[in-house]
Design goal:
Layout: E1 2-6, E2 9-13, H1 27-37, H2 43-57, H3 64-68, H4 75-81, H5 86-94
Antiparallel strand pairs: 1-2
Helix pairs in contact: 1-5, 2-5
């Protein structure tokens, strides 16, 4: 584990760059993480990120299918918002650990 300066804040991260302390997350951190991946966040992105953070807090196992059934965005929409790794990237930007289902 280590630390990384993101949005002018020192953030605790693991070897893959995922935040290890979700309480350090805020919208500025999310925007900076998204920019590193090449994603510009919209209100719809933040709806998904808030959903992921809430479900993580509740201890739910996150899957693409579960997000697709959330009513926020369907699976195709999730892929459009977070191309190249929808759950992997959305979790990283949401400041939560990488789901076990992601490689």
């Amino acid at each position: 584990m280590g630390q990384k300066v993101i949005a002018n804040k020192t953030i605790d991260v693991n070897d893959e760059g995922y935040m290890t302390d979700p309480s350090q997350w805020d919208k500025d951190v999310a925007s900076a993480l998204a920019e590193e991946i090449g994603i510009e966040l919209s209100d719809k992105h933040f709806e998904v990120l808030d959903y992921l953070r809430e479900k993580f807090k509740e201890g739910e196992v996150l899957t693409i299918r579960k997000v697709g059934k959330s009513g926020i965005v369907d699976i195709k929409g999730l892929y459009q918002l977070f191309p190249g790794g929808p759950l992997k990237y959305s979790s990283k930007i949401a400041g939560i650990p990488k789901p076990a289902s992601c490689v």
